[in-house]
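Let's practice the habit of predicting before peeking. Look at the sequence and jot down your guess about where helices and strands might fall. Then scroll down.
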Amino acid sequence: MDPELIGDCVHCGFCLPACPTYVLWGEEMDSPRGRIHLMAQHVEGTPLTSEMAGHFDACLGCMACVTACPSGVRYDRLIEQTRAEVERVHVRDPQERAIRGLVFSLFPYPRRLRLLRLPMRLTGPLRGFLERVHPSLGAMAALAPEPGPRSRLPRLVKARGPRRASVGMLLGCVQREFFPQVNAATARVLAMEGCDVVIPPGQGCCGALSVHSGREDQAVRLAKRTIRTFERAGVDTVVVNAAGCGSSMKEYADLLEAEPEWARRASRIRTVDLAEWLAELGPVARRHPLPLTVAYHDACHLAHAQGIRRQPRDLLAAIPGLTLRELPEPEICCGSAGTYNIFQPRAAAELGDRKAAGLAGIEADLLVSANPGCTLQIASAMRRRGGRVRVAHTAQVLDASLRGVGL
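Done guessing? Here is the structure:
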């Protein structure tokens, strides 16, 4: 925990209404200001107690406070440093250690996650039993999507028409195994906009889930593997279609700052979000009409961590016939937050229900988001309400318009 970063906080309170857990509970220690106070206490010598660790665990890491802070406090760096400290010195109870060990031995490894797809869905009828065993197991069962067909992508998807750029593409873990259709749509959209799309084989996890949960050693190992993968592929720009992955990859140099050579290698690869890249590139492919009303959901690691809000909205609004609507409380997290909805299922459910209620209050044919976790979270919350919602990624909407097909 960096004392200088802690000292930047002037305790003004602008972060309070932006913080989801403070909005839910109104507890000072479950606000960014309160958590920074606890960080300062620990730096000054107070032992990291179970109660203190609980307040840090309750943080979603959504970074809404970073957007709201007038003093430029780097809460994003602070909470990642703090979580790494929690993992180093705090002894969790055996059941919690077992659950965390299970999650981090499965989710960052696509091949293992692939084996989990069908069993996760089959556990749906056993959700009540699993919740009694451990709330996190029940949460995983509730979040599991319907297993669909796998989609294999070639190593290279050639540009259609004149080539305007050559980019790498990250497949991700959850995106690859639970939403392969999103990756397929992403590759087609990039190709139709004039990009050669290089998709290196053997890709693994980028490390986002690990770094956001304080598992620094695992995050560093996965980051290095990702850097090597795209170096070997010969690309210097990597397009990412999952907000949490893009946010973490953009901060590889910070993660690897203790190893200057790796930090330099990280800085030579430019990471861009799909919407960010398409807006920068400019459209050339024809948009066909899509007569849809779309509700757009801001993924926190896109809007707050990367500052990308306008680009996806502009891309959607440029589609003929499409009506774009805003969800209430767009700045408040849906409760997904990487693994938060697994490790903190009750708080996550409250936030998901809040988001689902807002969605139910507007008439939309489709919910669009740029992060697989958000998609799973809001769809699960809608099911709890007894309803369903069609969900899609920005890439899928663009793909349907460019190809002139229904969605």
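How did you do? The beta strands are 156-157, 165-169, 195-198, 237-240, 270-273, 293-296, 323-326, 366-369, 391-393.
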